[in-house]
Design a protein that fits this description.
The chain has seven helices and 21 strands. By secondary structure, the protein is of the alpha+beta class. The strands form seven sheets. It has a five-stranded mixed sheet, with no helix packed on it. Strands 13-18-17-15 form a four-stranded mixed sheet, with no helix packed on it. The protein has a three-stranded antiparallel sheet with strand order 12-14-16, with no helix packed on it. The longest helix has 81 residues.
């Protein structure tokens, strides 16, 4: 290994130029002398010194740069601090000035408000808020002024703005709730507190918070009738709807189980406290799939009844197997109505009798059947048709085709009057005459008057006679029929209206003349006749 004679770098043997200094390599070796060795040492020392000085210079330069930076930062900080102090001081002075101006206007606005000078108060608080737009007390006072002027919409908007900016403002909550309460806007109170995020506020206004009701039956589809119960945790009243509308204080008041019949029903309910504040609305939809139940059949089917016949009329309900019937007078039957077990006595007067059927297994309820009727001493009868058959028998029926059975009548035993009449001895009239039909034929003795006799009719002579209206035949001797202004005479005869043939002589009612010999009584009706039941 050889070295460069110029810079002393080690050179490979085959290198012709020094890679460090570029000098041509001496091919002939040069032998080092003492002098050259000293020079080499000096050169090395000088090079190291230069490197040291360069390092020292770099360090000094770095120290100078750091010093300059520190000075710059200090100057910057000072400037910033000065600016901040100036700003803070200016802002403080500005705020102080504005606060002073606000307080002055606010104080005067409060004085005007207390004096009920709302226009001046509003003008002053408006000027005050121009100095301090975000002042909550100023906004609350402005809301108070608008409320006093009756501008509740503007007032409530300002209270809500304050609450939005300061959720813990008890004053804003209290004033707004008080206004809603006076206006009867309980729903708004519920909405306000329902959206409140401050537990402290909720605790302070707990009396205005109403819990929702609970349902005894979960929403869903069922194959039997269900009875739904609603409950209020705090004992508040419950209002509900079945048509999907929102419950209010005008909705149905819950006081008994709600029967869920066949079909779909949507129940919505809410509790209301004594302030009229509602709870959250709960709702549930139900579908009841049960077989329909036919309406019950009730007998009798008439609309007018009388107890002159001595009978007690009753309503009979036809109850199919597996069913039960409930009934009521003058109102729809409810779950509390009596269960039908035996015929039910009619109530006197004008009433409506209702009945429903309930499927014992599914709870299905029928539509009601009702009969509106009158029941008393007298009534309006349906038309009656009287038809004479081929054998001469008379058959009566109502105009709707149903059979007519005449009411039972008691017979009265005759009482005899021994006082002689003007035209014969012994005989006497029937006392009293009980009414329309049928009167037994008279007989025996001489003729006599039929009681009651309204006119100045002289007593009839001869044998007994029949009393009107009796479709039978006359017997014995003649007798008077009331009302008859004439005199009786001759033999027996028939009494009008009688469709049959007369026997002996007799008078025809009404007949102003005297009776003669035997013959048929005029008028003789046709085989079929209609008349109103007396």
């Amino acid at each position: 290994m050889k070295k460069c004679s110029n810079c002393g770098a080690s050179l490979p043997d085959d290198e012709l130029f020094c890679p460090r200094c570029g000098e041509e390599v001496q091919l002939v070796p040069i032998f080092e002398t003492v002098e050259s060795s000293i020079k080499e040492q000096q050169r090395i020392l000088e090079e190291k010194e230069r490197e040291k000085q360069a390092i020292l210079a770099m360090e000094e330069e770095e120290r100078e740069n750091k010093k300059k930076k520190r000075n710059t930062v200090m100057i910057s900080v000072g400037v910033v601090a000065f600016v901040l102090i100036a700003l803070i001081g200016g802002s403080f002075l500005l705020r102080t000035s504005r606060k002073s101006a606000f307080n002055s206007k606010y104080t005067k606005a409060v004085e005007a408000y207390n004096a009920a000078d709302y226009d001046s108060s509003l003008e002053l608080i408006t000027l005050a808020l121009e100095k301090d737009p975000g002042n909550l007390e100023g906004k609350i006072l402005m809301a108070d002024i608008y409320a006093a002027q009756g501008k509740t919409d503007v007032s409530s908007a300002l209270y809500l703005e304050v609450i939005d900016e300061n959720p813990d403002s008890e004053s804003a909550y209290r004033k707004l709730i008080g206004m809603y309460e006076v206006l009867g806007q309980g729903k708004n109170i519920h909405s306000l507190l329902n959206n409140c995020t401050s537990q402290e506020i909720l605790d302070k206004f707990a009396d205005y918070i109403v819990e929702a009701p609970s349902l005894s039956v979960n929403a869903g589809t069922y194959d039997v009738i269900k009875e739904l119960e609603l409950a209020s945790p705090a004992g508040n009243q419950i209002r509900y709807t079945l048509d999907g509308s929102e419950p209010s204080l005008l909705s149905l008041l819950y006081n008994d189980k709600i029967v869920l019949n066949g079909g779909k029903t949507k129940v919505r309910a809410a509790c209301f406290n004594n302030k009229g504040i509602p709870s959250e609305i709960i709702e549930a939809e139900y579908e009841i799939k049960v077989e329909s139940v036919d309406s019950p059949v009730i007998f009798p089917r008439g609309t007018s009844f009388t107890y002159n016949d001595g009978k007690t009329h009753k309503f009979t309900i036809i109850v199919p197997r597996g069913m039960k019937a409930l009934y009521a007078y003058d109102s729809m039957p409810t779950a509390e109505s009596p269960v039908y077990k035996e015929p039910v006595d009619m109530l006197e007067g004008n009433h409506s009798f209702y009945a429903i059927l309930i499927n014992k297994k599914t709870g299905g309820v029928s539509s009601p059947t009702s009969i509106t009727y009158s029941y008393g001493e007298t009534n309006v009868q349906d038309n009656i048709s009287i038809v004479q058959d081929a054998d001469g028998n008379l058959n009566a029926s109502y105009s709707d085709g149903s059979d007519y059975t005449p009411p039972a009548q008691e017979y009265y035993e005759p009482s005899y009057d021994d006082t002689p009449s003007d035209n014969g001895g012994g005989g006497g009239g029937w006392t009293p005459d009980p009414g329309p039909a049928p009167n037994p034929p008279g007989g025996g003795g001489g003729g006599g008057n039929v009681t009651p006799d309204p006119g100045p009719n002289p007593p009839g002579g001869g044998g007994g006679g029949e009393v009107t209206p009796d479709p039978g035949d006359g017997g014995g001797g003649g007798g008077e029929v009331t009302p008859d202004p004439g005199d009786g005479g001759g033999g027996g005869g028939e009494v009008t209206p009688d469709p049959g043939d007369g026997g002996g002589g007799g008078e025809v009612t009404p007949d102003p003349g005297d009776g003669g010999g035997g013959g048929e009584v005029t008028p003789d009706p046709e085989p079929v006749a209609e008349m109103n039941e007396a």
